[in-house]
């Protein structure tokens, strides 16, 4: 097998820089975040009409950002926008968007550019559907039953939607940077772009899951989709000099309590000793990725905090080849009781 440049896959592998194997510096969660950089930034939250996406949008608006919510649910979108506008006038816009449609997403991005005077600084993909348990489709009533096609909606939204969003973000970040440079006469219009790093670099944040690292038993569509999002992140996070020097990070929440989680599900998880994070823990992780310039090409796991401080349970997954691509961190935190009740570890916390 050969690459598009004619070199063999083996040659390409040998030529991988050691820096890519080692990765970037781990996130420092003790470092204060400078929220002054949020003011007047233009953010797109795909899937931002409810749950984690809305929580991130709300925090951005509180700190002075302009937020466009792209979501298919018009009722939730209208409610979310109204709530955001109550925090600050002219701070939010809802655009009905079908994330599995390329044309719908592209049209929405163009509408944001028109609304925000040709600026996009932040793109967050938080859209997602729940898993389908394969056992529900592999229980034929009799041996003569023909198999029916399994649902693909979770794959469509979680992977195809994320892929379209990442492509559009990368495209528009690059185009906007070129236009800004040309207007400033930094380079001739037909020259190769040597991007100058601005004080705030464009941000692409993808919402994966602990299921991006840990097997999702019986739910291959969800497991595949979250590994797919991780794959998109991994493919884009290193070569960002070609794309306006954007920063690409990944959030990997475990179970998280949101308005979408049914009370019975939350109670069942709690009764079985599974720790459930709060949306504030996810928001803290998102703000760390978006507004700490030293957090670059990192994957952050969102785990429940046990001290009442949002985000204090979060940790860097060390998702780099020399660190076993996150596997060691997940195993160590699993054994330490970060995700579930373990004898001798936090068993008295409710």
TrEMBL record:
* Entry GO terms, CC: cytoplasm
> Which InterPro entries would you find in this protein's record?
NAD(P)-bd_dom_sf (IPR036291), Sc_DH/Rdtase_CS (IPR020904), SDR_fam (IPR002347)
Q: Which UniProt keywords apply?
A: NADP, Oxidoreductase
Q: What is this protein called?
A: NAD(P)-binding protein
Which Pfam families does the UniProt record give?
A: adh_short
Q: Give a yes or no for keyword NADP in this entry.
A: yes
> Can you tell me which family this protein belongs to?
Belongs to the short-chain dehydrogenases/reductases (SDR) family.
